[in-house]
Amino acid sequence: MPTPMDTPPLRQSLWRMALRILLLGVLIWGAHWLMSLAMDAVAMLPQEAQGSARTGVILAMLALYALLIALPFVPGVEIGIGLMMLSGAVIAPAVYLCTVTGLMLAYLAGRFLPHATLRQFFADLRLRGACRLLDEVAPLSRTRRLALIRRKLPGRLGGWAVRFRYVSLAVLFNIPGSTIIGGGGGIALIAGMTGLFGWRAMLVTLLIATAPVPLAVWLFGTRAIAVL
């Protein structure tokens, strides 16, 4: 097994990270461009055909949104809010379900992502501490992982974080600026990687944690977004 300090050459790491960022940027830009193009095309259709065409475009946007929110560092909340602003309160339940679906996809990807892939990602970022922690955690059982986290966090924080880890996760999904720490997709991905979150409890956590904004929009309309 490689040691935590054997990071690849800096040029190689920068090249791989640049490619990842470029691909992510192209994906987001391409999605925005295609949606704009589709909406412009709908506007040129006869009035009687616009309704069904617009519905098809919105369904495609929702599917794309579910995929985008699963990606780390993608501002998924902002995309969801944009969809609700575009289509009104009627689309809020669909945005909610797509949000939960996308984050569950990220969680499942993290749960089944090979250790070597994750370690390479951390090594490219020069996160030697993360590599060391990953190497330490990977061979442990779930019980021993929980005990390790409890030891590493100071004072009562360790016991609280372990006992109420699903509550802590729900808070992370809703803190302002969560994109900086990976966004919803990144947080769900890491939750899956740790092996400390069962899929059923994770699903319930996501259903509760992502509900406030879509529920408020559904009940009070898009003006609720300004308040939130």
3D structure, described in words:
The chain has 228 residues and is an all-alpha fold. It is 78% helix and 0% strand. The protein is built from 13 helices and no strands. The termini are far apart.
* Helix-strand topology string: HHHHHHHHHHHHH
Number of strands: 0
Distance between the termini: 48 Å
What structural class is derived from the secondary structure elements? mainly alpha
Helix share of residues?
over 70%
Rg, alpha carbons: 20 Å
Q: Largest sheet, described in full?
A: none
Q: Which band does the percent of strand residues land in?
A: under 5%
How many helices? Answer: 13
Show unreliable segments: 1-5
Average pLDDT score: 76
Looking at the structure, what is the overall shape? globular
Question: So what's the oligomer here?
Answer: single chain
Summarize the structure.
This protein is mainly alpha-helical.
Q: What secondary-structure arrangement, pairings included, does this model have?
A:
Blueprint lengths: L9 H34 L3 H23 L6 H12 L4 H21 L2 H10 L3 H10 L4 H11 L2 H9 L1 H10 L8 H12 L4 H11 L2 H9 L2 H5 L1
Helix pairs in contact: 1-2, 2-3, 2-4, 3-4, 4-10, 4-11, 4-12, 5-6, 7-8, 9-11
Can you give keywords for this protein?
13 helices, mainly alpha
